[in-house]
Amino acid sequence: MNLQALSVLSAETGLEFAMPSQAAARVKELAAKAKLEDDDMIAMNKALLDVIMTGDFDTYKLLCDENLTCFEPEAKGHLVTGLDFHKYYFDLMKGDGPSAKQDVRNTSIVAPVIKWMCNNTAATVCFKRLVQVGVNTVATEETRVWEFCGGSWKLRHFHRSHG
Predict the structure, then answer these.
(1) What is the rounded average pLDDT of the residues 4-22?
(2) CB burial of residue 63 (10 Å; 0-12, 13-18, 19+)
(3) Which of 28, 35, 45, 154 is deepest in the core (most CB within 10 A)?
(4) Cα 18 from Cα 22, distance rounded (Å)
(5) What is the band of 26 on the pLDDT scale with cuts at 50, 70, 90?
(6) Residue 2 has pLDDT above 60, yes or no
(7) pLDDT tens profile 123-132
């Protein structure tokens, strides 16, 4: 697997997998795996981005700690705790307004770096993310902190900045 650029095509109707249910099954399989390799951790990040792009909040909740913390542009410099802030955007994507998903989007993870910690029960993943919508591309720089506890991998914290 080329860790320099992983790409997934996300559309309103599903993921790069044949059916969203197959993607959800793969996410559950990875999340329950106590020992992950680098490629598996990249796949967890990819799965997380897939569910964000397709508006699958139920699977997002499965992957995230209920007390998830983050810094992201939408929070305007504030530390956000919990999932309610994020649910607002998932709900917004379901509507018919200008923020609703209407175009095919392509998300690429570029140059990921993984740092394993705590006897491989935690990891930070840093990468550049490119999101293409039509002829426009948005770049962000992201760091995501994952931890295996209670029998599954959970996203504990992330930081996303404009790239």
Answers:
(1) 37
(2) buried
(3) 45
(4) 7
(5) confident
(6) no
(7) 999 999 999 9
Q: Contact, 136 vs 114, CB < 8 A?
A: no
CB 140 within 8 A of CB 128: yes
Domain ranges of the chain: 5-162
Fold of the domain spanning 5-162:
Nuclear Transport Factor 2; Chain: A, (3.10.450)
81-124 per-position pLDDT tens digit? 999 999 999 998 887 665 666 566 789 999 999 999 999 999 99
**Which of 147, 142, 125 lies closest to 68 in space, CA to CA?**
147
HEC letters along the chain: CCCCEEEEEEECCECCCCCHHHHHHHHHHHHCCCCCCHHHHHHHHHHHHHHHHHCCHHHHHHHEEEEEEEECHHHCCCCEECCHHHHHHHHHHHCCCCCCCCCCEEEEEEEEEEEEECCCCEEEEEEEEEEEECCEEEEEEEEEEEEEECCEEEEEEEEEEEC
